[in-house]
Write a structure and sequence with these properties.
Blueprint: E1 4-7, H1 13-24, E2 28-33, E3 47-51, H2 57-67, E4 72-75, H3 90-118, E5 122-126, H4 139-160, E6 165-171, H5 179-183, H6 196-206, H7 215-226, E7 234-237, H8 239-247
Helix pairs in contact: 1-7, 2-3, 3-4
Length: 248
């Protein structure tokens, strides 16, 4: 029987490539995004593009009802943010937590009843290699991802008793993604003069990385995590993330 994967945040970057990869492997794919783009993925009877806002319970319920039975959920939707923490508005901080943390938790809680009933399936949470080593100017973003790391590590233990796997995929630095673009106007004013010289040095270093992560790297590792029946929890994705994981 063909399995079905539901992927959040599939409009671009890691989510889009992951949807393509699972489809190429013969799976049924439910690619979700806030604003559906039918042209983003190939037309196929095994692929559906559905609207989803992970911060809205009604949207989560609607997409799960329309998707039908799901074998794997990939919680990939997220918001990026860089800036000096001192001047980051609390409203922006709460917005990041609503999507990057509470959205993942809500989506996971909503899909668990059907996985528990079948005593099978997997929840794959995409976080970041920033949880392996601190990086400057991403304190809030890292906090959201670190929260999901801890959540998933604990959840994996209780779900294992029910035949369900919970996994973490930790991508490295992906300059080809829309991290900054997804942050949009949230970053306006977040690099005030006292922090500007330091920020410039950080940006200069990021412009000459020794290794980077591609969307294809992440898609392959998400696939591996989803099809791995072992009790492995963390899967670094990309050469730089692999190196950080080995060093940690």
């Amino acid at each position: 029987m063909t399995k079905t994967v539901l992927i959040t945040g599939s409009s671009s970057g890691y989510g889009l490539e992951t949807a393509r990869h699972f489809h190429a492997q013969g799976w049924n794919v439910v690619a979700t995004m806030r604003t559906p783009r039918e042209d983003a993925l190939p037309r196929s009877p095994r692929l559906r593009v559905l609207p989803l806002d992970v911060t809205q319970p009604a949207s989560i319920a609607a997409v799960l009802a329309e998707a039908g039975p799901v074998d794997v959920v990939v919680n990939n939707a997220g918001i990026g943010l860089m800036g000096a923490f001192e001047v980051t508005p609390m409203s922006t901080i709460r917005e990041l937590f609503e999507t990057n943390m509470f959205g993942v938790i809500a989506m996971t809680q909503a899909v668990l009843p059907q996985l528990r009933a079948r005593r099978s399936g997997a929840v794959i949470n995409v976080t970041s290699s920033a949880t392996l080593r601190p990086h400057p100017l991403v304190a809030v973003y890292t906090a959201t991802k670190t929260a999901i790391d801890g959540f998933t590590a604990s959840l994996a233990l209780e779900l294992a008793e029910l035949g369900i796997r919970a996994k973490l995929v930790l991508p490295g630095y992906g300059p080809g993604t829309r991290f900054t673009a997804n942050a949009g106007t949230r970053m306006d004013g977040l690099f005030p003069e006292p922090y500007a010289p330091y920020a410039q040095r950080v940006f200069a270093a990021a412009g000459s990385p020794t290794a980077v992560t591609t969307a294809a790297d992440v898609a392959e590792v998400v696939w591996r995590a989803a099809t791995d029946d072992s009790d492995q929890l963390r899967y670094p994705a990309g050469p730089d993330a692999v190196a950080l994981a080995r060093a940690s």
